[in-house]
Specification:
single chain; mainly beta; Pnp Oxidase, Chain A; three-stranded antiparallel sheet; 12 strands; globular; Split_barrel_FMN-bd
Length: 169
Amino acid sequence: MSVTVAELSVTGDQLRAAVGTFPSGVTVVTTLKEDGTDVGLTVSAFASLSLEPAMVLLAVDNASTSLPYLTVGAPLGISVLADGQGPVAYQFSKRGVDRFAGVATQRGRGGVALIDAAAAFFVGDITAAYPGGDHTILTVAVRECGTHETARPLLYQRGQVHDWPEYQI
C-alpha cells in the first residue's frame, strides 16, 4: 500500500512537536563562495549515510540564505559542536550577522572553515542534492574526519540546545 502526500493529515506543528522529542547533535556546516568568502549555518539534520564509500547526509531548509552555495561539487566542512558551544550554534543560525565573528576556526581540505574544539569534524564534497519537502537533502563524500576524543556533543531537542547531562549510567 502506498500513501500519497495528499493523504497525509499531520500538521507541521504536530510533526515538529513529535520529532522534537528526539535529541540530535548540532553541527555547523561551512563552504566557500566563489570569491573565497566563508559561508556557514547551523544544521541539526545530519546523519551517517555509508561506510563504503564514506558518506554523510544533511538536510538544509530551502529558505536558507546559504543553500545557493551548497552545490554539487562544492567543498563542505561539518563541525559537530561540543558541550558548551551553544552560543556558536545560535550565532550560525542568525541572519544578517557575520556568523564567523569571534569564532575560532581552522582550515580543512579545500579551505573550508572548521570550528575549533568541536567534538568531531568531517570534510568532503557535496555529491548530490535531492528535494525533501521544505528542505534539500545533500549527500557528502567524506575525504577526512576526526574527533576530539574527550569532547561530548552539544544536543538539540525541542527547539533548544542543551549541554550533555551530568549523570552516570
